Structure formats: structure tokens, C-alpha cells
Amino acid sequence: MKDPMFDPHYEITARISKALMTIESCRTSIDGLPLTTDVLISLRESAKLAATHYSTFIEGNRLTAEQVGEVIVANCHFPGKRRDESEVRNYYLALTEIETIANLTSVVSEKHIQMIHSLVETGRKKLSPYRDGQNVIREGVKGRIVYMPPEAKDVSALMKDLVDWIRSSIEEGEIPILIIAALTHYQFVTIHPYFDGNGRTARLLTTLILHMNGYALKGIYALEEYYAVNLPAYYDALTVGDTHNTYFGRVEANVTAFVDYFCMGMAVAFTKVKEQAEKAQGAG
Prior knowledge:
Helices cover 67% and strands 2% of the residues. The protein has helices spanning 8-31, 37-58, 65-74, 82-104, 110-122, 152-172, 177-191, 198-212, 224-229, 231-238, 246-250, 256-283, and strands at residues 137-138, 145-147. It has a single domain, classed as Fido-like domain (Fic-like fold).
């Protein structure tokens, strides 16, 4: 009989389980820390600035972490980087809106997603309509197509199905919230409902689901840093299937690698913020 310890599926399952246990341990520890209001405000602001920097950095934003803070906090301007400044302001606004939404409801809707995207792209609280044409993802160097999302005519139904699945999965309680968040991220990027801003919106949607379901962690963590630091692995985990066409392989593909990547990232982010919070509490 084959030894399960040498089965790659056993190994990845064990790694995911270990990551989930680490996350729960950190969540319990942080929720129990008696952080002062001043310390909590400081940690939250640092997390939002870090999330803003790293998520926009993934998409090519040229501002440094320090410059992002100067743009958001002091309304500074940098020559030739007007678009970069707008991107970070918009992302920061979307993060703030997520906190508001999570405090008002525990149910994700398509309107929430469309509003988040509008904030990401325009800085305005409107509802972004889904794309009305085909888009493709191309390789940066040679420009070859690496992924072709669903046709525009299918996007609306796919987004409705995604939101319905999120709701029913949370209500049934059979799938851990972290796995639901990971699969939501993956499926949103698969649908690619907009011409631009899909990656940022996917990461924000993930954060919204976590905040709505007990994983806000006092708002003091930034998962985006893990993505940015491990960017090649992020793209590799998202790129599954044998073809660039969504209708041939993407839907049936094994997404365990992305779930593994996501849970490992959450474990790293939660462990880091636990250490920061304990240090801040001691200093306070």
C-alpha cells in the first residue's frame, strides 16, 4: 500500500490544515489582546497603507511605500506620477468602504462588488457595469495571450452564480471561511468581469468576506504584502489548466495550489501581525 506521507496530495492537504490551525491560533491571540485605542488606530492605519501600497504595486504602481503614506496622509504630489497617486488614493478609499460595509451587513452582494470596483477605478461610490466586450491577459514581454476570460454575454450570470455560491456556502457552514475566500478570489479572477481593476477588486473582495465573517483581526493585517513579495508564486497559483481559454480547462481545473498559496499567505500575515500587536502592546 502506498505510504500517504509520500503522496503529494497528502502533503499539500497537511500544509493547508497546518496553515488553518496557525491562522486560528493567531486570531484567538490577537482578539484577546487588550490594545489601547491609540495603538489600535496606529496599527490599523499602518495595515491600510501597507495593503494599498502592495496591492497597487502588484499592478505596476511606481510609488514607494513611503510615498504612498505621503500621498494618503499629507496629500503630497510627485512629478510624473499623477496616475499612481490616483490609484493609491482610490484603493485606500475602497479599503475604508470595506470596513463600512462589513460593519453594516454580513452578506456580500453584486452591488458591493460593483461599488468596490468603481472606487478602485474612479474613486467614486457608483456601481460599475460589467464589461461589454472581450478582454484578454497577455504576457508582458512577447504579448502572447496567457488567459482568455469568459465572453461578455456570460459575465453577468457568472457573477450572480458566484455571489449566490458565497452566500449559500457561508450559510451552510460546511466550508471554512478561509477556503471560501480563496475560492472567491480565484473565481473572480477567472470571470474577469471588468476590462481593468480585476486583481485589485478580487483582493478587496477577499478582504471583505474575511472581515464579514470573523477574520477582520481588528483590521490590522495586510494580506497584499504576501502576494507582492511572492508575486511569481501568486501568478503561478492562479494560472491553472492546460489552455488559456476559460471554456477549455479553467472551470474543471484543480485549484488546490491556489488554496494552498492563499492559506499559507494568511498564516504568514496573521503570524506577522500577531508579533507586531504583541510588541505594540508591550511598548504601550
